[in-house]
Amino acid sequence: MGLLTILKKLKQKEREMRLLILGLDNAGKTTILKKFNGEDVSTISPTLGFNIKTLEHRGFKLNFWDVGGQKSLRSYWRNYFESTDGLLWVVDSADRLRLQDCGQELSKLLKEERLAGATLLIFANKQDLPGALTKEAIQEALALDEIKSHHWCIVSCSAVTGENLLTGVDWMLDDIAARIFTAD
Amino acid sequence: MIIKASAAVGGGVERSPRVSLTQKKKKRSCHFRKQSHFSNMETATEASQENKFATDSDGAKIQERIQKRNQERIDGVERRKEEKETRSVPEENTEYFSRTFQAELACIEELLSHCSGEDRAEVVRKLEETTTKTAQLQKFVNDSVMFLTQYELRRSQAALQKLQSSITEARDKAMPKKKFAFRARTQDTAPPVAAPPAQSGEVDGGGGASEKSPPGAATPAQSEEAPEQCGFSNREGELLTKTAEEIRQGDVLLSHLSNCRVRLFGSPSTLHLKHIDSCEILCGPVSTSVFVDHCKNSTLAFPCQQLRTHHTTDTQVYLHVTCRAIIEDCQGVSLAPFSWSYPTMDADYAVSGLDRDRNNWSQVDDFNWLAFRTPSPNWSVIPEADRKTSWDD
Ligand SMILES: Nc1nc2c(ncn2[C@@H]2O[C@H](COP(=O)(O)OP(=O)(O)OP(=O)(O)O)[C@@H](O)[C@H]2O)c(=O)[nH]1
Ligand SMILES: [Mg+2]
Question: Name one GO cellular component term (chain B) (predicted).
Fold first, then answer.
């Protein structure tokens, strides 16, 4: 009724975030999303196009956009940049041979004006594999320390075991919330 | 009806495009709206404050803030207007897609229902028209393919295929003598990945881990061991083998091999093949994906969850894939069902967690060939008579 109520309602409605999941093909983007949502991960096919999933977590409404990472799809990534609050960059930690490729794609994204405000979470995925590089090694290989344009954090995880997925997403939500939902 | 390619952005939701439409619209303008709404309200609040404290020494400051917020609001409106003009909302394109698709489909079906009768020339003309329209509709789908969910894509493909066979049927009926050359492709009938409604409340990434983790899956202790890569590289003309103990649910990499015969008796978590020339590579059940890049003139055999093939030519794959195989930048890839076996394979299947009853070996997505009506020329099925039946020589 009162002004405060309206204000509160507005804020509640806007406790909504748009999260974009990108990374090379085979990195484990779709698997992370499904595992996070408690779904079966053994039935996932390579993504031809994209998936959207909306879920509630900690009182936030999260709109996840998971876009296919095959080479032929990467030129379409930019169609999903608009209004992104958080970018989840997923890395296959055991795929050493494509780490450079992975770094190049990421640095291209970080130059995108339309992603300028977004919080960046890097998931060093597939940590369950014996050949996986540590997150420190990946941090170095992707030259993350040079990123000044975005708030970022790297979290090692495994979409197969579910390890650390929550930790990563929670960090991201906190960072976005601090930026968006607190008054000026 | 004129068919337009969909705009540069598009999208859809597995669950309900409508929900997302409103969400997205709201979200899109979120940053601006937040600013303008809040500034509206705070302006109002401050205006009344200003009345109360008219003589307050802060009056000038407040005035300044009101002005600033007002300006912000005006800017916001301007930007919004601009935004509206230069971009369209993705979900509107999805809606546009399905509306256009359905309308056009109905129109072609209607036309097709009149493709019979005495006037043969007229029937032929109408049939021709349905064929042309169907081709246009197919093109419309192809042009929109990047912006559709897999569900929508497969659904429209299925509808097109049904239409295609109805046309063929009508044509056979109208012109019984003429044998028709092409037939509808019977793939892509796999059900879409149906997403259950998003759960509200707590989602625990760790929850339900047991559903996938096979007995004996990697334990923390294992991953603490030296992260050495299991595999072979830079070999020529050799017989290379690994045992289950060596593989132990790890990641295996084979690179720069030529004229080698490789036998991996075990269940890796994942398998990568890079720069393979004239090799025969056989591997036990792979729990997750097999990634193949730059492979030629080779024969491969393995069970896996996903097969991802890149830059590969003239290679045969004897495959068991529980989800899907894809190719990108490939030519001459041919497939047959997995047929290799070795004494401890059953145990390795159990470790891998793969479903032995689900094999989609003949369903391949070619990322460079999105014209679904005609099969990709880049892969084929190995005729039964030509399949390898014995693996040991
Ligand atoms: N061992 C292991 N495998 C994983 C993990 N995460 C994903 N995978 C496997 O990696 C493969 C690729 O996973 P997807 O989720 O399909 O990868 P994606 O990034 O969505 O790939 P695109 O859709 O092509 O962009 C699948 O076989 C997964 O089971 C992980 O943490 N550990
Ligand atoms: Mg995917």
Answer: cytosol
Atom of ligand 1 nearest to the CA of A159: 31
A30 known ligand binder: yes
B168 and B238 part of one domain: no
B349 in the same domain as B284: yes
Top-ranked range on mean pLDDT: pick from B5-9, B85-89, B363-367: B363-367
d(CA B4, CA B22): 24
Determine, yes or no, domain membership for B108: yes
Average pLDDT over residues B12-21: 31
User: Residue type at A176?
Assistant: I
B110 falls within a domain: yes
Which of B149, B174, B199 is the C-terminal boundary of a domain?
B174
Residues with CB under 6 A from ligand 1: A 23, 25-31, 44, 46-47, 68-70, 90, 125-126, 128-129, 158-160; B 269-270, 288-289, 305-306
CA distance A3 to B253: 63
CATH code of the domain in which B102 resides: 1.20.58.1250
Q: Which domain holds residue B264?
A: 227-386
B145 touches A: beta carbon within 8 Å: yes
Q: Are residues B161 and B299 in the same domain?
A: no
Averaged in consecutive runs of 10 residues, what is the pLDDT profile of chain A (184 residues)?
A: 59 77 98 94 93 89 94 91 95 96 97 94 96 96 95 96 94 90 57
Q: Which of A3, A19, A45 is nearest to B325 (CA)?
A: A45
B168 and B250 co-located in one domain: no
Question: pLDDT per residue over B138-167, tens digit each?
Answer: 878 877 776 777 777 777 877 887 888 788
Inspect the interface and report whether the beta carbons of B211 and A166 lie closer than 8 Å: no
- Is B351 a residue whose pLDDT tops 80? yes
How close does chain B come to A184, measured CA to CA in Å? 10
**Which atom of ligand 1 is least distant from the CA of A23?**
19
Return the beta strands (E) in chain B as ranges: 230-236, 239-242, 251-258, 261-264, 270-277, 280-283, 286-296, 299-328, 331-337, 364-366, 379-381
The residue nearest atom 2 of ligand 1, judged by CA position, is: A126
